[in-house]
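Write out structure tokens for GH18 domain-containing protein.
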Amino acid sequence: MVKLIDEHKLVWIDYDWECPVGPDWLPIAKDRSDKEDYHLLLEETRIDLNKYGAKMGRSYQLSVAIPPTP
């Protein structure tokens, strides 16, 4: 992801991960590991953004839109 930001001078990037292990009414396949994998993806992204930001002399935000249910 950081490579894409750097190569293409992106100002934002969007992960479109449809409600990991969301409600049963969602018409998508679910895997119980998705919930933990999503957390790991965000954690690794934050670490990479911090390293890249330090290199570039700026900071990068990370935000998510998630449902309010656990």
